Amino acid sequence: MEGIQSNGVAWSVLDLATVLEGKTPADTFPNSLRLAQLAERLGYTRYWLAEHHNMVGVASSATSILIGYIAGGTQHIRVGSGGIMLPNHAPLAVAEQFGTLASLYPQRIDLGLGRAPGTDQVTARALRGENMHASHNFPGDIQKLQRFFSADNSSAQVRAIPGEGLDIPIWILGSSTDSAMLAAALGLPYAFASHFAPTHFTQAIELYRKNFRPSQWLQQPYVMACVNVVAADTDEQARYLMTSLLQFFMGVVTGERRRLPEPVENMDAMWNDQLEAAVNHMLAYSFVGSPARLEEELFSFLQQTGVQEIMATAHIYNQEARLHSYELFAQVIQNLQQRL
């Protein structure tokens, strides 16, 4: 499968096209491209964008369009979806969109697929209409996609043009044991959303590995973990930058969605013990600090989980600090390659 690394640990980027407080999506997209270009120079494996809807702080709703924008502004880094929420779309439409992307940018496009709506239930109904129970069709819809991409589909009545016969790697994304079992049964790589849903992470990846069935796409199980990474020159600087993400997730917990706010010196006056505990639980897999701290914490994480790839997401308000965080993270992973 294209883009699967057999040795060492790979490192990649997840971008939600986060909108900063006081800014607009028009300001956001050039920031994403600038980060992707830096990631390419630093040796990151892939740059994924996530589908979300009806969120003022997230501008990646038209995911396939943004993938084209990022791929068009880079040269060789893999670009893809982390993920496309397949029940929101007809499989044929997804096949045609990603077939178009893969035709424009050969051997560079990944298709990560999720089951959730990527939004609230009211917005999900607006997206899905009468197809509100499409999540139950998720396994079958994945197989439809695989048929559309297959060269053997050339004699079918319905064909994906472009898309047919193209090598477009499909990944299963998830945050539960159900997604793990599905990825295992289909013999596909598995990406876990541990950056906001840590509860079932360990159990899910164990089940995936135990039940994995080799396929024409993948012979051995492959696990990617998405985690929050906020790196800075000092632990104190990193903790300060992290307060933007803490405030952002306060909005997730309370339902009061907002754009990514500026960091603050102290969070104590902003939340109570219950809200703090809820946010910290969701962000359990967050690596925050100086390179030395991150290296030790990530070394322990990799030893415990054995994941083949870490996808880092960094909700940092200051864009220079965000770029620097990804620079430091790349250095940390390169150092870890020598220890693993």
UniProtKB/TrEMBL annotation:
SUPFAM superfamilies, per the entry: Bacterial luciferase-like (SSF51679)
Alphabetized Pfam families for the sequence: Bac_luciferase
Top-level division of the source organism's lineage: Bacteria
GO molecular function: oxidoreductase activity, acting on paired donors, with incorporation or reduction of molecular oxygen
One GO location term (cellular component): cytosol
InterPro entries the record matches: Bact_Lucif_Oxidored, CmoO-like, Luciferase-like_dom, Luciferase-like_sf
Domain Luciferase-like: 23-308
Family: To bacterial alkanal monooxygenase alpha and beta chains.
Protein name as catalogued: Luciferase-like monooxygenase
